[in-house]
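Why does residue order matter? Because the sequence determines the fold. Keep that principle in mind as you read this record.
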Amino acid sequence: MPNPILSLPDNSKVRYSAKKRKTEYRRVNQKSKIDIKKSEYEQILEGLDKSKYLLLKNEESLNEEQINKLIQVKNVSALLKAMHELKEKIRKLFNKTTNWYTGVFKLGMWLAKAKKYFPKSNNTIIRWFYEIIAYFDNRTTSGTVEGINNKLKLIKRSGYGFRNFDNFRVRCLLTWHFVC
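Structure:
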């Protein structure tokens, strides 16, 4: 059984890496010069036009028009279709799996399929494997702590340096509505 005490990565980082790779491919595919007939080329460009949002958004959240556009994108590019389906599978894996044993099995299956399409995401998941497995039991991430750290850095930058630590401390406590 995984160690639940370890700090857990925010699963959105894993999904972000996969989304970034998919966006990079979409841009390359959209801008590349393909040696085909002009009408086919225009059809491909039309299919890929304004597709980033559709590919990044959860499939259940799409309206009817967006679903039709997503189908058009999938028909134009088999690679984008495979990448989108893998993105949806890992999203469902994180949302629906509650047992670490099942999570390990499903994640292993996903990694085997996704290695070709998302090599950077694959390496990230392998690097954080035990923490990701612990997520399936605890459903906690380090996202809150990372948000607090980000806010603290923002306060520090916006203060252009504080004369003393007490001023910084008071500013931080006021940010989270603590009484000083």
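The two ends are 43 Å apart (CA to CA).
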